[in-house]
Design goal:
alpha+beta, five-stranded mixed sheet, binds zinc ion
Length: 458
């Protein structure tokens, strides 16, 4: 056996070690120097703004929200919090209404900061890092990008708090629009057609319902393999306008999703979410056709009935996938014959000849019980979905016939962050992070500016 260390014939000139420049580029040094020099000035400027706020707030006693009486101020304490440029502080008065026992610190509420914590603005940036990268990597990015030292656990905590705020907002919006008295955006400019695609995948969940705590020096035993039933389904839905086609990569035009929604588990929840968004966008008018593309799963069609003017489409690629299974069984895996057979069937389906295809399948005489079973399943699938397989018509109307957009959206929202090696999720953790990813991918991150970070119960 040849050894990997066997001497190989060496070239005549000796190798040269790769050269590193002695210094970083001069501009980089200048930029860093100025950043470091001005940090204290930034901090001082920010502190003086805070001081002005504190001075303005001093001496104006708030009114008790419960009894309407002016509140008393028993104490004023120095409070500090952490921002990107350093630690800030302010004298904060605590007001009290003795009869009601109601207490408040109006200056903290006004500034939106918490004693001894990271400021919301910094927490928002840290949560953004956690939205795109696993927590330990996000902590490293926090140092490289922001010059902030924070532990993965610290990153986890802010992601949970902002995620909870975002998830709470989305749920509230879904509940609001589920009520017939809610007010949606005006629908005068509603598009004639909206495509709604839904898809699902499973996520590995934590077996332990409680977090595992590591004592100093102790190593945790490896996580057990994911058992049956430890998966939860994540559903993703997209809304898009078939009239909007963009060149997503050179020579490739596809419809760009305008909105994507995700949720953990519940089929009603994903439809409620998509419906709420349609109302927020003012996209469903009296004459809007809602095109629903699905993989044939019952839960999709059951909920689709909520739209009066609708067109249900069985995703073309799922329809073919079922044919492939049968063809490979009948002609052998990877055989040219199977290939040809499916190709012909695809042509017929695309031409809208689903009844002809079913009739032809019924004339096939399977030779084995296994083959018969597979054929019956295929015939059943096409028969049940025949009304959703008028592909010629859908193509003519410009609806499209595949759920490619939802599948790629699903990969972006879920797979890219949640399905990395060894990842397990708690119910709440997944729900919160999904809420943040949704904001980011829907280009709606700025919504966090108008939400308050939620406190987590410990
Ligand atoms: Zn009171």
């Amino acid at each position: 056996m040849p050894s990997p260390h066997l001497p190989r014939p060496e070239p005549k000139t000796p190798p040269t070690r790769p050269v590193l420049a002695d210094d970083p580029p001069r501009f980089l040094l200048l930029e860093r120097e100025v950043e470091i020099a001005y940090r204290p000035q930034m901090l001082a400027a920010l502190q003086s703004k805070v001081d002005a706020f504190a001075a303005a707030a001093r001496g104006t006693a708030p009114v008790c929200p419960q009894c309407g009486q002016p509140m008393r101020c028993p104490d004023t304490r120095e409070v500090s919090w952490l921002a990107r440029c350093g630690c800030l502080h302010a004298p904060v008065s605590r007001y009290r209404c003795p009869p009601c026992r109601y207490e408040c610190r109006p200056l903290l509420d006004l500034l939106g900061v918490e004693p001894g914590r990271i400021s919301g603005a910094l927490a928002r940036l840290l949560a953004l890092l956690a939205t795109v990268a696993p927590y330990p990597l996000a902590a490293r990015l926090a140092w490289l990008l922001l010059g902030v030292t924070i532990s993965p656990m610290g990153i986890w905590r802010v992601a949970q708090r902002w995620g909870e705020a975002a998830a709470h907002h989305t749920d509230a919006l879904s509940r609001y629009h589920a009520d017939s008295r809610s007010i949606g955006a005006p629908t005068q400019a509603a598009p004639s057609t909206v495509v709604l695609g839904v898809d699902g995948c499973s996520l590995g969940m934590q077996v332990h319902s409680k977090r595992r705590h590591r004592k100093a020096g102790e190593t945790l035993p490896p996580l057990p393999p994911i058992e049956e039933g430890r998966f939860r389904e994540v559903k993703t839905g997209v809304l898009l306008l078939p009239s909007e086609r963009a060149e997503t990569s050179p020579g490739r035009r596809s419809v760009v999703p305008r909105f994507l929604g995700t949720c953990l588990g519940d089929a009603d929840a994903i439809f409620a979410r998509l419906y709420a968004q349609l109302r927020e966008l003012g996209w469903v008018g009296a004459h809007t056709m809602v095109v629903i593309v699905g993989d044939g799963a019952e839960w999709i069609w059951n909920r689709a009935t909520m739209f009066v003017r609708r067109c249900e489409i069985l995703d073309f690629w799922h329809a073919l996938e079922h044919a492939w299974e049968f063809a490979q069984l009948r002609y052998g895996e990877g055989s040219a014959q199977a290939d040809r057979w499916v190709h012909e069937l695809a042509e017929d389906l695309r031409a809208g000849k689903v009844q002809g295809v079913i009739a032809r399948l019924k004339r096939v005489r399977p030779k084995t019980p296994e083959l018969r079973e597979s054929l019956q399943a295929l015939i059943r699938y096409y028969t049940e979905n025949a009304g959703r397989m008028r592909y010629d018509e859908y193509l003519r109307l410009g609806y499209g016939i595949g759920s490619g957009a939802v599948e790629s959206a699903h990969k972006q929202v879920v797979h890219a962050r949640f399905r990395q090696a060894g990842m397990r999720w708690s119910e709440a953790g997944a729900r919160r992070l999904l809420a943040l990813r949704r904001l980011l991918l829907n280009d709606n991150w700025a919504l966090l500016d108008r939400l308050r970070m939620v406190s987590l119960a410990h």
